[in-house]
Design brief:
Blueprint (H helix, E strand, L loop, with lengths): L21 H4 L2 H4 L5 H13 L2 H21 L5 H10 L14 H16 L4 H12 L12 H15 L9 H8 L5 H17 L9
């Protein structure tokens, strides 16, 4: 069963969670974490940083990754992976030019800042930021840890359907609970736009 570093829990889900999230927050894998301080802080950032459809995608990524871990008996940092899922596409938001590493690199930097602000140790931060930085690779690196492999699996399955045979119907169930019509198209457009910002680092467009 999935495991991970735990700290004392505080009651309740994040205040003002959007209605579109509620069916996903009720899934056991997320419901079990709602009282965890780091999980609550991550979900608060999810609502602050990301457009609604990207936020829903991030929650589905975590749930798909957790389902795969449970199916295969993979132990991993559950709260940490939730934070990584929350931030894995944060670099897609805004119009600031991107530096080295493209949007995954910026997403990893935002996650690292968040984790450092919550006094998460360097070793755990390194593991989780690597997962975010490498999630757009075609396949995980050979030496990737469970968090990187799980985030990669969940992200690719939700957007492209790759790996669906390993979790029959789970993607369909989650999309029925929290639909995001045409998400793959809008996501691809965001990725292309971010790629152009990387190619043209002197773009005059200012950040939001």
């Amino acid at each position: 069963m999935a495991t991970g570093p735990e700290t004392p829990k505080a009651p309740g889900p994040p205040q003002g969670a959007p209605g579109a999230w509620q069916p996903l927050l009720g899934r056991p894998a997320l419901a079990d974490l709602l009282g965890h301080p780091l999980a609550g802080a991550a979900l608060t950032e999810l609502g602050r940083l990301l457009p609604p459809h990207v936020a829903v995608h991030s929650l589905r990524v975590f749930l798909l990754a957790d389902a795969w871990a449970r199916t295969h008996g993979i132990a991993y940092d559950r709260v940490g992976l939730l934070a990584a899922a929350v931030f894995h596409d944060a670099g897609l938001v805004g119009r600031a030019p991107l530096g080295r590493g493209g949007f995954p690199g910026r997403s990893a930097a935002l996650l690292d800042r968040f984790l450092a602000g919550h006094e998460v140790g360097m070793g755990r931060r390194t593991t989780l930021t690597r997962a975010v930085r490498e999630h757009m690779r075609p396949f995980p690196a050979r030496d990737a840890g469970p968090e990187a492999r799980l985030l990669h699996f969940g992200a690719w399955l939700d957007v492209t359907g790759r790996g669906e045979r390993q979790l029959p119907d789970e993607r369909r169930r989650l999309r029925a609970l929290a639909p995001t019509p045409w998400f793959a198209v809008s996501f691809s457009a965001r990725v292309v736009a971010c790629g152009l910002r990387r190619v043209l680092p002197d773009s005059p467009v200012t950040a939001r």
